Amino acid sequence: MRDGVSPEDPTQLRKELERYRLVVTELQGRIQALEGDLQTATTMAEMPQVVVTQPELRQTLSRLINKVAMIVQSEKVLTLLYQAEAGKLSVLPPTLGVGEEQAAELQITPDQGVTGLVYRTGESAIFNNAVEDPRTLKTKIALLGVRNGICVPLKIKQRDETERIVQERIIGVMHVFNKRYEQEFNDDDVRLLEMLAEQAAAVVSNAQLYIQLTEEKERLEETFESIHAGVIVVSNQGTIRLINSAACQMLGLPADGYDGRSLDEVIHLESVRSLLDESLHEGVEASRELDIPGTERIYKAETSLMAGDNGQLQNVVAIFNDITEIRQVERMKTAFVSTVSHELRTPLTSIKGFVATLLDDTEDAYDAEMRHEFYEIINQECDRLTRLISDLLNISRIESGRALDMQLSTVDLHGVANRVLTTQQQYTDRHQLVNAVPEGFPSIIADADKVVQILDNLVGNAVKYSPNGGVVTIAAEDDGEMVRLDVTDEGLGIPERHQDQVFQRFHMVDDDVNHKAVKGTGIGLYLVKHLAQAHGGDAWLARSEVDKGSTFSVSLPKEATEAAR
Ligand code: ADP
After folding, report:
1. Ligand 1 binding pocket mutation candidate from 465, 489, 496, 544 (most atoms within 8 A of CB)
2. According to CATH, where is 1.10.287.130 located in the chain?
3. 551 Cβ below 6 A of ligand 1
4. Residue 124 in contact with residue 151, Cβ under 8 Å?
5. CATH 3.30.450.40 intervals, the chain
6. Which of 85, 266, 285, 499 is 20 to 30 Å from 18 at the Cα level?
7. Cα–ligand 1 centroid distance for 513 (angstroms)
8. Among the listed residues 446, 461, 453, 464, the one whose alpha carbon sits nearest the alpha carbon of residue 390
9. What is the CA radius of gyration of the chain?
């Protein structure tokens, strides 16, 4: 079963579907918005070069910083950006003339030093005696070996169509330190630096926006891909906008290259095309169940409509959920109800028949021996009914998640095996039932009735599924903290493809005529496993070979585990 949806629970599936619908709608909206932003980011007038990756940004900044150093004749250049989460300005690499470790130490809040001042006011500052200047942070000046410097703001300017500046935002500052040849910085240097800083600000902000948007877009696309339901988004023009890998897999399509291609060209499956066409042309949400040819899988397909800002239909989203397991369990449940009814009716009919015969026998036509035989049959049929009803009650407890009611006592396994085999032997003379659990085999602390029920089911199956008779044995192994019981028969065996599944509820070998001839409900082994697990043990198929027979094993702890207490 695929994770996420329990196939037994259609309400949960409906909820999942609703969740997917919301995710897809949100993704679609956000991807569209991102595409718009990306467009703007790449075409912004100030951007001297389209920078689309971190290394490209570093390279461009490095060139710019060298240009700055050359033009204003400075020894050191560094840029600090305001990081909103940290509430601090920190260095954006690359730098010139400043070591990486020193740069990493520069974390400056907006109320500190020249950096903070320029960031807050947006006004450039020049200082020709760094050590004496009251505005400078002395520790940083000492750290970087600064004699003099200029600090200018990094401003992002938004202009309208007439190139008029409509908005300004400061994202950080640029410093140059130590004018070469023992000279001092002047106002011309400030103006030059302001011009270069404007370029740097544009590069940084556009690149950051671009990188952030691309990363977000990639993340959204990954989320879209990871949805395990198939999703197809078709535009109102009938072209594919998105198709995730689950949908490609479902339709048997290669993974890529559908963007912008027409629906009819890509999707050949008539049922899927007509579903999408219905929503596209009639503007209605549609839903249906689809059998995908060649896969034996059933999908629930649902479409939803997505309108643009103008209220017109823009995209149709189709979501495909694999409901094969749900349908299978539904079919099994229906079959189960009919077999259980049959299983209940058969012993009842028999009991009723014999009781009626005895009641009618007012003339004493049947002798005492005959009557005794009738009573025995009635007794056995009552046992059969009791067993079935007790199985059903236990199943309903397990299904509703309630703990099984455990009555712990010391259980002698040789004695229990004897009891089970004696009862079962009453129903057959074609089988030889052998108790190979030695007398004196270690006792265990367990619920005796449940151990009986486990063995009763296993021996019952061994007899049922050995229509030609044979030996059925209960053996036991002492495994230290656990004991193991093995029930072996020489019957039909279980085809390999069913071996993993026989412990599932309602599972019956249904493609084999010999198995089909035997009446069953498909709950016996499911119950055996749960009863063993309730003790802190387990049950499994140890060996099985068609027409040779099977061995089922059960492990049980010698001392009852906490779970069983
Ligand atoms: P059922 O009531 O159908 O016997 P179980 O859960 O006990 O239900 O068993 C599940 C299926 O496993 C059976 O329908 C049968 O096909 C197969 N099976 C169980 N025990 C044996 C066995 N000893 N030999 C062969 N097949 C078996």
Report:
1. 465
2. 326-397
3. no
4. yes
5. 47-214
6. 266
7. 13
8. 453
9. 40
Closest ligand 1 atom number to CA of residue 507: 10
Distance between CA atoms of residues 404 and 261, nearest Å? 58
Return the number of other C-beta atoms located less than 10 Å from residue 345's C-beta: 11
- For the chain, residues classed under CATH 3.30.565.10 are 399-564
pLDDT tens across the length of the chain (565 residues): 334 444 455 666 667 667 676 766 766 666 666 556 555 544 433 444 555 677 888 888 899 899 899 889 999 999 999 998 899 999 998 999 998 888 888 899 999 999 999 999 999 999 999 999 999 999 999 989 999 999 999 998 877 778 788 888 899 999 999 999 888 999 999 998 998 998 889 888 888 787 778 888 788 778 777 778 899 999 999 999 888 888 998 888 888 778 889 988 998 889 999 999 999 999 899 999 988 888 888 999 999 898 877 888 889 999 999 998 888 878 777 777 777 787 788 789 889 999 999 999 888 888 889 899 889 889 888 988 888 888 888 877 777 777 777 889 999 999 999 989 988 888 889 999 999 999 999 999 999 988 998 999 999 999 999 999 999 999 999 999 999 999 999 999 999 999 999 998 888 888 888 888 887 878 889 989 989 998 999 999 999 999 999 999 999 999 977 666 7
The CATH number of domain 47-214, selected from 3.90.1580.10, 3.40.50.10750, 3.30.450.40, 3.30.470.20: 3.30.450.40
Using the atom order of ligand 1, give the atom closest to the CA of residue 519: 3
**The pair of three-digit structure tokens given for residue 26, joined into one six-digit string:** 């949100």
- For residue 465 and ligand 1, the question of a CB distance below 6 A is answered with yes
**Secondary structure class of 103 (helix, strand, coil):** helix
Closest CA to 403 of 445, 447, 444, 340: 447
User: Closest by alpha carbon to 141, among 119, 165, 108?
Assistant: 108
CA of 554 to the centre of ligand 1 (A): 15
CA of 399 from ligand 1 middle (Å) equals 20
To which CATH superfamily is domain 399-564 assigned?
A: Histidine kinase-like ATPase, C-terminal domain (3.30.565.10)
CA pair distance 207, 57, nearest whole angstrom: 7
Tokens of 423: 């009862």
Q: Is 531 in the pocket of ligand 1 (CB under 6 A)?
A: no
Domain covering 326-397, topology: Helix Hairpins (1.10.287)
Q: Rounded CA gap, 259 and 557, in Å? A: 60
Distance 422 CA to ligand 1 centre (A): 21
Please work out whether the CB of residue 509 comes within 6 Å of at least one atom of ligand 1.
yes
